[in-house]
Amino acid sequence: MKQNPITLEVLEILDAIDRRGSFAKAAEELNKATSALSYATQKLEEQLGIGIFQRQGRRSVLTPAGRLVLDEGRKILAASTLLVDRARELANGWEPRLRIALESTVNFSRFFETLNEFLAAHPTLEVDVCESVLSGGWEALERGDVDLVVGCPGPVPLQKGFRSVPITGGGMLPVIAKHHPLSKLAGDAKAIATALNKIRRVVSHDTSTVDIARSAGLSGGRQILYVQTIDQKLEAIVAGLGIGHLPTYRIQGHLQRGQLIKLNLYSAGDTNYIAWNITSKGKALQAFSKKLIAQSW
Where do the domains of the chain lie, and which CATH numbers do they carry? Predict the structure, then answer.
């Protein structure tokens, strides 16, 4: 097989010459003799049968063909640097990829702010985030589809080998749209309890597919509208289609504007968890979960 004349070394030389504007300055940066850079460039031109640089005054400027070689070559240089960094991190116990199931009721802004801080210190880590509802996150963790679940509601499944840490949050509020026909009963605990069977519930689908799916909050009654996400649930309730529990942090504006009204119903405070498999020893998982646990949710 014919050897490819475009090596990482020659790409680094072309990159330095282009950035510094001359062979002499590039040689100084690379700690090489100017003649070595000239020889490497001339050899590449001969092997490719094209001109790489042309003189413009005192500067060495890339030809169109040379620009193509360098522009594409810089992608190769960046990829090779990333490969080296990730290989070193893996050798030191840092896994290259972290898969996270994010419960639909979690404060997304808080989570992604924390993730941004973490990735600033570990830029080569690849992160894959999916959304889960109720038992779906636990199931994904058990199947090995994710490495970490954030905000999954209790109880924690027993004898599954999970390490779990409870987190505090803003909680969930049962609400109704102001223009809903029965919104006038919202503040009357006895009246709203009596009317519950007549009001449609808006319920998020459990993303569990193997275990028995479950629902939470106001899931009883004869009329139910199932939705896929919290965004859909919020919009459905605001539209007056029914009642349901929504994350407090998501609806503060709707409450202040009077679009939604809190229902005077008893609502047990659920405990949510950050969890991972006990057998998972990756340093990225350990460091990020520790950062999440320290966060005020």
Answer: 8-91 (1.10.10.10), 97-169+271-293 (3.40.190.10), 172-262 (3.40.190.290)
